[in-house]
Predict the 3D structure of the following.
Amino acid sequence: MVREQIEREGISDTAVLQAMRRVPRHRFVPAGLRDQAYADRPLPIGYNQTISQPYIVGLMTELLELKKELRVLEIGTGSGYQAAVLAEIVDSVWTIEILEPLTTSARQRLQSLGYRRVNVRCGDGYAGWPEHAPFDRIIVTAAAEEIPKPLLEQLKDGGKMVIPVGAAFSIQNLVLVEKRDGRITKQNVAAVRFVPLVRERDR
């Protein structure tokens, strides 16, 4: 998977490639789909949610330019795969999932695989996790029609955020956000298609 789908497509960050080699992706998909776990496509994980295509996981992780000491917030835990990849690189991962069944299963899965420094919480990711802010990096694994203001506020100065922005169930832009001296810059990186970011008010 790493050689044919990720390296071949231009992902070169050694830490990202090593992390994706170490994380057993088949443990993060439903049992009936494990034979497809390493295929170059997203897969359903229940509750109208998906585990992202491996290349997209690699791309988003590389864009964050991670270092061991950084604090990372993930919005949209899903099955926990992206959080596990992050935890292979950094010591401090905070991840929020709005769906209780996915939160519970992801927490159990991550603990069983030894990712004990991943903090998993059920809640509305749009609001972030203010009690533990600011974060050096934020990664959002669901599409928002606009970048949530609370996440911008919780991003540390000098920090980066990667988020798909656009209408639900259509082509969105993967956006790299940077905050420097209180100013926000945005760069469109690639066209993507993610499930929508679910908010508590929409449930």
